[in-house]
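Entry, Tuesday afternoon. Goal for today is a structural model of the target with 2-acetamido-2-deoxy-beta-D-glucopyranose bound, before we commit to ordering more compound. Inputs were pasted exactly as handed over by J.K., no edits. I checked the ligand SMILES twice against the vendor sheet because last time a stereocentre got dropped in transcription.
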Amino acid sequence: MMSSFSFRRSSFLLLSWVLLIPSLQVEALWWSNLDNKNESSEEVQQFDQPSSVKAQRTNHNNNPSLAFEYGVDVSFPMHHAPVSTNYAWLPHNQQPNAEIPDEYKDMPVQPLGDMQSKYENYIQGCVDYYNKDGKNKGERCVTTERDRLAMSLRQPQSMYNYTQMGYTKIRAPDHVFRLLKEFWEKNKHRETLERWAVGNVYTNHWESPSYMVSVENEALDGGGYVLKQHIWNAARDTIEEWTGYKQAECSLYGIRVYKEGAMLAPHVDRLPLVSSAIINVDQDVDEPWPLEVIGHDGIARNVTMEPGDLVLYESHSILHGRPFPLKGRFMANVFIHFEPTQKIGGESEYTGDLPPYLIPGSPEEARWRSSNPHGHKLLNQQQPGTTGSTTAHMLAARGQYEDLRQFLNENPDSVNARDKNDWMPLHEGIRKGDLDCVELLLDRGAEVNAVTPHGSPLYMAQTFHAGNKALQQLLESRGAKLHPPPSKGASEGEL
Ligand SMILES: *[C@@H]1O[C@H](CO)[C@@H](O)[C@H](O)[C@H]1NC(C)=O
Ligand SMILES: *[C@@H]1O[C@H](CO)[C@@H](O)[C@H](O)[C@H]1NC(C)=O
Ligand SMILES: *[C@@H]1O[C@H](CO)[C@@H](O)[C@H](O)[C@H]1NC(C)=O
């Protein structure tokens, strides 16, 4: 009993402690975001929006039913746990001149009731689920939760934004929606359970599993690379028009189907997923299931979608999630991700060392550089250096975690596929230095000591990323041994 991990008792304090410490500076930001309602303040970049998009924009600002406006950490923790407990009904919030007790001075008003208990239940659900089989992996939930919050705090402030508000809702262009709808109608009965990494807290899959109809799956009617490219091409114009900049495709994995009770913890997407679209393909709901976004003005808004609606959002800097459980049978949507190829104000193709959307000197810069030692290159121009590669090799080589996870769900055997140089996806992930992809591959059964002409995985980690101790520790914790190349010099030139 003692060894099993209880989130509520021990870790919650630990978690709040760890999360609250690093950010006196950000503590101030959480308020200023809310106070800053002046849209033309210099915090928000000004860019002209094409008028057709502007005209269709939903007016979120004149909603009289909004008694309180709120920002981060009210519906769900985003920058810090716990969420605000400064309830609207507390006496100091009821009387205009009342003294505000010290403990509430830095908390936004909480109009949604006891969200903290709901949050604790959410994380506890994950912990209990992963402790259930006696393997005591529940603490992984707390680790990934800590990462989610740290990233939600660090990444947005480190990003350039291409639009003023950061999100908008339009109708999907007919030809885009038709492609998706046709594919969905033919294949919706063939949804497959979506697998998540141990301890992943992004969806409450322990309570309400999600399903996937992958557009890339050749086994599905009409599925495959051609369909994927069609959807991408069809969506690109819309994204380019909205942002005003050229865009390159990053990621598109399929139609995710959420079921009754599903939630999605607010988050920002991993780079280079920057300019994104969600399309509601189909749903059977009792009431609209809101997507909550925090705009560049710092204010939370519920965006509701009907089938055929398309939400454009800057997913690298706009916190987005579904903190209220789905009421109904299902909601099916697709995510389409691009990255801008130009710097804001830049006329031509960008050739800098950092991605054009990453602010030099920001907290994200150092982290990005350590996982991208060779500098910036558009995702769709990064070629894996080996031949005979499978899709899994390519995705691991590029560090496309989400796509790799989806691909392995559909093709579990490809985890140990070898290319002509004897490399497996694991070796590609190590060369890229992508901790998440490497861990995912190991979780899915990659052989941790599979030797290539360049040595064992641990040897390669030391060769390519001598400074990346986390990568080496991860491998060692899975039993990795240091094996140098069998005969030196065999294929030195192939890298
Ligand atoms: C909003 O910002 C602009 C530009 O900084 C300034 O001129 C204007 O006075 C501000 N308005 C308010 C209401 O603060
Ligand atoms: C971009 O948006 C994020 C989130 O709204 C914000 O924190 C950040 O400061 C913005 N970047 C710039 C350069 O204004
Ligand atoms: C968003 O939706 C939830 C659930 O319906 C509701 O409780 C909350 O007040 C809404 N928030 C806003 C900002 O409209």
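Residues 43, 45, 156-157, 159-161, 166, 296, 317 surround 2-acetamido-2-deoxy-beta-D-glucopyranose (ligand 2) (CB under 6 Å).
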